[in-house]
Amino acid sequence: MDERGSTGAYAGRCRWFGWRGHEQPESNVTLAFTATVLGSPRIGPRRELKKAVESYWAGNLDASALESVGRDLRRRTWTELVDAGIDSVPVNTFSFYDQMLDTAVMLGALPERVSGIDSELDRYFAAARGTTTIAPLEMTKWFDTNYHYLVPEITPASRFTLNAAKVLGEVEEALALGVPARPVVIGPVTFLLLSKSDDRAPLDHLDDVVPLYAELLGLLADTGVKWVQIDEPALVADRTAAELEATRSVYDRLAALNHRPAILVASYFGDLGDALTALVETGVEGIAVDLVAGSLDHVVATPGIEGKHIAAGVIDGRNVWRSDLDGSLTALETLRDRAGSVAVSTSCSLLHVPYTLDGENGLDPALRSWLAFGSEKIREVATLATAVRSGHAAIGDQLAQSRAAAETRASDPRLHDNAIRARLAALTDSERSRTPAPDRRTAQDSELSLPKLPTTTIGSYPQTTAIRVARAALRKGEIGQAEYVRRMRAEIADVVALQEDLGLDVLVHGEPERNDMVQYFAEQFDGFFATANGWVQSYGSRCVRPPILYGDVRRPKPMTIEWISYAQSLTDKPVKAILTGPVTILAWSFVRDDQSLAESADQIALAIRDETADLETSGVRVIQVDEPALRELLPLRAADQSAYLDWAVGAFRLATSGVADTTAIHTHLCYSEFGDVIGAIAGLDADVTSIEAARSHMEVLDDLNAVGFDLGVGPGVYDIHSPRVPSVDEIAGSLRAALGAVPAERLWVNPDCGLKTRRRAEVESSLRNMVDAAHLVRAEHGWIST
Ligand SMILES: Nc1nc2c(c(=O)[nH]1)N[C@@H](CNc1ccc(C(=O)N[C@@H](CCC(=O)N[C@@H](CCC(=O)N[C@@H](CCC(=O)O)C(=O)O)C(=O)O)C(=O)O)cc1)CN2
Ligand code: MET
Ligand SMILES: [Zn+2]
């Protein structure tokens, strides 16, 4: 151990900091921390918050009981961090719904339309979820993750005012418990760049909001906290020179305040690039860098970091692999020799990983030894901080365990399946292409003989309590497989009957047997593991259990045929089979870090391709391969995007090009702004693409036209994210608008997305109106309606 490490540079003395020309925040105090995380999960280790919030919405829990669940979860989170040896604890990363929405509340930027609701909590939830009369804020993906944030709306009428009650309340709660609290807020640059602004460029509002951040910093200083964390993840994406200049000016202004905590600007999900230089040149004391998605070399090479406290994100907050402690230590020591001081940290908030491996007793023991979930990552941070402080010998046991895990993992035979690798190596371009689309269309038209503007749905029907209870009972052994199948078939029969009654043209089986569209397939592939309790928040109270891809992917047997065949046996209408595409399976799983995503995608694609062949053999004529995460995985930097789109489109085509011309391949895309991937959507070469469009008023159709897209398209005619039932007129209006952009021969009629989160009654009314609207518009054009 070199001198600085052994003499405890980590005790963090003020001499590391370049406090420039203003009062030093409390000199002679220990300022720099040594071990931290950037944020914590909040749904609760047993999804306590999900359950409480949903009970509150249902009217079965009152506000004070809900508050107390929140308080309890916060206390447990902080206690765990402190007990593990984390000496600076993020506070205000708790949320009843979403941290961007919390920030909008903090800045007084909730939309006018919720202002009539008296209760603060109900106003908050109305902005998040809408009511029968109020539209919610839009929801979209948080960078390249499967977490969704609410998009704040900024209008000329926005009057920003500081409402610091939540952050101050949580800080006081933490301080009262003796927690070394570091309040966390989303920074002004990221907040504005991620908002929707209907007047000026988003950053033109900086002058309105920066004074509120200044006021907040003063209030936080009053509480006695030493540090504040200001999250600016927007700085890891490409930013213009003007945006970087604006960032520099914001942090110059905040750093110049003479009554404030030390500022840690946190970045995550990638490299800061030029933004690092801009930040280093300001007077902020600390910068958090992501050393998993971003590069150490860049940080080390940046002049000025010798004056900063660097929170080094060496522990992966996005993936579940146990850290290579030797590698992390090397990085930390390299950085320590350059930076003012260094703290061990996670690469991003632990929001994106499950709470703990405790209780995952079904996991293969070898696999388990390769993993670290939230609690284990917290301990890895503390372990590394010990080594940096006291030398490697102080963590001898942990180093040995980390090395042993790496060795058993590298040599595990399940990681390499030679048959699959040989099959992939032998692939040619012909396995990624089909007959030209017009020829396929002719073949499919005579096969299916559908009316103009055919109506269909995206796949799932409501996941009722009865369905979930049946699955839970099967899991606990209370019912057998035969009884489970009987109950799922009853559900399928019900959904098929409903669709026939509604008069839909292409039916689906409703996906009742799927716990989740990704997990369901992962559970059936070799090479994936599913967790029992590895829940991660996706949005609001909705959670997912991302499966873990650890080895080569193989499909031991068909996965969907029996369910689809059963549904088809009940009707003369075509039943569309639904599969999940390779990109989405990867995006919503924890992926292997020992091979490229492109390789993993092709392995999954081969397995899906085999499933399409089996479906076709069993008589299925329409197969939809969902890729809702196509846009989500798009790299944040433009320079990396075309390589991604090439392999993503290639994997989809590998999955879908093995079928005959007479078999229609559909795909479905949702949850995003498609502008950046429009060319890739055309490249998928799917016969029909159903795409979210209701909230963007069909604009996506013009974008598709602009790239010469000439395949079938089903722009979503109503938003399934809201309980509101759209009227016939409204849907007919959307269809008429769509017909202005797309010839009738190519236009399909469907909702924006699957119906699994909706109630049965809403679904029935909405779909009835949708089918009526299709009939109305067909009649207007003299196309006969069946
Ligand atoms: N992975 C994934 N990501 C996605 C989506 C998606 O569908 N899947 N869609 C987009 C939006 N995100 C979403 C994420 C989750 C849910 C969702 O509905 N989640 C469900 C859980 C789904 C699930 O895993 N269900 C399991 C377990 C259900 C459960 O909680 N069972 C109870 C017992 C039964 C009961 O009493 O209800 C238990 O385990 O305690 C099942 O059906 O088997 C929830 O949070 O409520 C919807 C959309 C984008 N990202
Ligand atoms: C998030 S996309 C969902 C697609 C899926 N087939 C469903 O209908 O639920
Ligand atoms: Zn969807």
UniProtKB/TrEMBL annotation:
<feature type="binding site">
    <location>
        <position position="511"/>
    </location>
    <ligand>
        <name>L-homocysteine</name>
    </ligand>
</feature>
<keyword id="KW-0808">Transferase</keyword>
<feature type="region of interest" description="Disordered">
    <location>
        <begin position="425"/>
        <end position="455"/>
    </location>
</feature>
<dbReference type="GO" id="GO:0003871">
    <property type="term" value="F:5-methyltetrahydropteroyltriglutamate-homocysteine S-methyltransferase activity"/>
</dbReference>
<comment type="similarity">
    <text>Belongs to the vitamin-B12 independent methionine synthase family.</text>
</comment>
<dbReference type="InterPro" id="IPR013215">
    <property type="entry name" value="Cbl-indep_Met_Synth_N"/>
</dbReference>
<keyword id="KW-0486">Methionine biosynthesis</keyword>
<feature type="binding site">
    <location>
        <position position="692"/>
    </location>
    <ligand>
        <name>Zn(2+) 1</name>
    </ligand>
</feature>
<feature type="binding site">
    <location>
        <begin position="458"/>
        <end position="460"/>
    </location>
    <ligand>
        <name>L-homocysteine</name>
    </ligand>
</feature>
<dbReference type="Pfam" id="PF01717">
    <property type="entry name" value="Meth_synt_2"/>
</dbReference>
<dbReference type="InterPro" id="IPR006276">
    <property type="entry name" value="Cobalamin-indep_Met_synthase"/>
</dbReference>
<feature type="binding site">
    <location>
        <position position="626"/>
    </location>
    <ligand>
        <name>L-homocysteine</name>
    </ligand>
</feature>
<feature type="binding site">
    <location>
        <position position="692"/>
    </location>
    <ligand>
        <name>Zn(2+)</name>
    </ligand>
</feature>
<dbReference type="GO" id="GO:0008270">
    <property type="term" value="F:zinc ion binding"/>
</dbReference>
<keyword id="KW-0489">Methyltransferase</keyword>
<feature type="binding site">
    <location>
        <position position="588"/>
    </location>
    <ligand>
        <name>5-methyltetrahydropteroyltri-L-glutamate</name>
    </ligand>
</feature>
<comment type="function">
    <text>Catalyzes the transfer of a methyl group from 5-methyltetrahydrofolate to homocysteine resulting in methionine formation.</text>
</comment>
<keyword id="KW-0028">Amino-acid biosynthesis</keyword>
<feature type="binding site">
    <location>
        <position position="50"/>
    </location>
    <ligand>
        <name>5-methyltetrahydropteroyltri-L-glutamate</name>
    </ligand>
</feature>
<feature type="domain" description="Cobalamin-independent methionine synthase MetE N-terminal">
    <location>
        <begin position="35"/>
        <end position="338"/>
    </location>
</feature>
<keyword id="KW-0862">Zinc</keyword>
<dbReference type="GO" id="GO:0009086">
    <property type="term" value="P:methionine biosynthetic process"/>
</dbReference>
<feature type="binding site">
    <location>
        <position position="511"/>
    </location>
    <ligand>
        <name>L-methionine</name>
    </ligand>
</feature>
<protein>
    <recommendedName>
        <fullName>5-methyltetrahydropteroyltriglutamate--homocysteine methyltransferase</fullName>
        <ecNumber>2.1.1.14</ecNumber>
    </recommendedName>
</protein>
<feature type="binding site">
    <location>
        <position position="668"/>
    </location>
    <ligand>
        <name>Zn(2+)</name>
    </ligand>
</feature>
<comment type="pathway">
    <text>Amino-acid biosynthesis; L-methionine biosynthesis via de novo pathway; L-methionine from L-homocysteine (MetE route): step 1/1.</text>
</comment>
<dbReference type="Pfam" id="PF08267">
    <property type="entry name" value="Meth_synt_1"/>
</dbReference>
<feature type="binding site">
    <location>
        <position position="632"/>
    </location>
    <ligand>
        <name>5-methyltetrahydropteroyltri-L-glutamate</name>
    </ligand>
</feature>
<feature type="binding site">
    <location>
        <position position="670"/>
    </location>
    <ligand>
        <name>Zn(2+) 1</name>
    </ligand>
</feature>
<feature type="binding site">
    <location>
        <position position="626"/>
    </location>
    <ligand>
        <name>L-methionine</name>
    </ligand>
</feature>
<feature type="active site" description="Proton donor">
    <location>
        <position position="721"/>
    </location>
</feature>
<feature type="binding site">
    <location>
        <begin position="47"/>
        <end position="50"/>
    </location>
    <ligand>
        <name>5-methyltetrahydropteroyltri-L-glutamate</name>
    </ligand>
</feature>
<feature type="domain" description="Cobalamin-independent methionine synthase MetE C-terminal/archaeal">
    <location>
        <begin position="453"/>
        <end position="775"/>
    </location>
</feature>
<feature type="binding site">
    <location>
        <position position="668"/>
    </location>
    <ligand>
        <name>Zn(2+) 1</name>
    </ligand>
</feature>
<feature type="binding site">
    <location>
        <begin position="542"/>
        <end position="543"/>
    </location>
    <ligand>
        <name>5-methyltetrahydropteroyltri-L-glutamate</name>
    </ligand>
</feature>
<feature type="binding site">
    <location>
        <position position="753"/>
    </location>
    <ligand>
        <name>Zn(2+)</name>
    </ligand>
</feature>
<keyword id="KW-0677">Repeat</keyword>
<feature type="binding site">
    <location>
        <position position="146"/>
    </location>
    <ligand>
        <name>5-methyltetrahydropteroyltri-L-glutamate</name>
    </ligand>
</feature>
<dbReference type="GO" id="GO:0032259">
    <property type="term" value="P:methylation"/>
</dbReference>
<feature type="binding site">
    <location>
        <position position="141"/>
    </location>
    <ligand>
        <name>5-methyltetrahydropteroyltri-L-glutamate</name>
    </ligand>
</feature>
<feature type="binding site">
    <location>
        <position position="670"/>
    </location>
    <ligand>
        <name>Zn(2+)</name>
    </ligand>
</feature>
<feature type="compositionally biased region" description="Basic and acidic residues">
    <location>
        <begin position="429"/>
        <end position="444"/>
    </location>
</feature>
